[in-house]
Amino acid sequence: QAQLTESGGGSVQAGGSLRLSCAASGYERGSYCLGWFRQAPGKEREGVARVNTDGTTTYTESVKGRFTISKDKANGTLYLQMNSLKPEDTGMYYCVAGPYCDDLRRGYWGQGTQVAVTS
How far apart are CA 55 and CA 53, in angstroms? Predict the structure, then answer.
């Protein structure tokens, strides 16, 4: 069973940057996708970015060009570099790992880290 622990959240002004980290262990590195979801207040959880098993990446349209997802192959840590942050990026950010890359919600979830972007 995968264990996922997020860190790096905080409060930042619009236009600023944050880097989220997810310490991930206990999963099949070659067969699991890793990704980030977020949930804004009063809204549904949405997928933000994903690293597929072949190393390719997928982003939701609203963060393309601003966010970068990456994975440290040596230790399995997942990162999300977030630049040019906007107030609408505010929310709880979750790290997720699972074998169903097209339905990553079915995977294992971390506890989340809070991101607040002020205007």
Answer: 5
Q: Could you read off the pLDDT of 49-58 as tens digits, one per residue?
A: 999 999 999 9
CA dist 75 and 62 (Å) reads: 29
Per-residue pLDDT reduced to its tens digit, 56-98: 999 999 999 999 999 998 888 999 999 999 999 999 999 999 9
- CA distances for 103 relative to 10, 12, 76, 90, angstroms: 28, 31, 21, 23
- Residue 75 exposed, middle or buried by CB count within 10 Å (0-12, 13-18, 19+): exposed
Q: d(Cα 32, Cα 11) in Å, to the nearest integer?
A: 31
Q: 42 in the Ramachandran plot: left (φ > 0), alpha (ψ -120 to 50) or beta? A: left
